[in-house]
Write a structure and sequence with these properties.
By secondary structure, the protein is mostly beta strands. The protein has one domain. 0% of the residues lie in helices and 54% in strands. It has a 4-stranded antiparallel β-sheet with strand order 1-2-3-4, with no helix packed on it. The protein is elongated, with a radius of gyration of 15 Å. It starts with a strand and ends in a 17-residue tail after the last strand.
């Protein structure tokens, strides 16, 4: 099973925005990893968007985060 990955990087004056799109070749599910890094500060903002195009709802049972508290 191959996973399709698309990376889009947008650079603005004060921050850099990176989108990493993951597509499953067998199921209509897409996951976008979003990373925003600010050039003037030591701050990184990150979030995940999950899109599914099935007729029935999809349940996420496990989700791992790299956020340190």
């Amino acid at each position: 099973m191959d996973l399709f990955i698309i990376v889009l990087i947008l650079v603005v004056v004060c921050f850099k925005l990176t989108h990493i799109l993951l597509k499953d070749p067998e199921y209509p599910v897409e996951i976008t990893l979003n990373i925003k890094s600010f050039s003037t500060e030591d701050v990184i903002e990150q979030w995940v968007e999950i899109v599914q195009k099935e007729a029935k709802p999809v349940t996420v049972y496990n989700y791992a985060s790299s956020m340190r508290i």
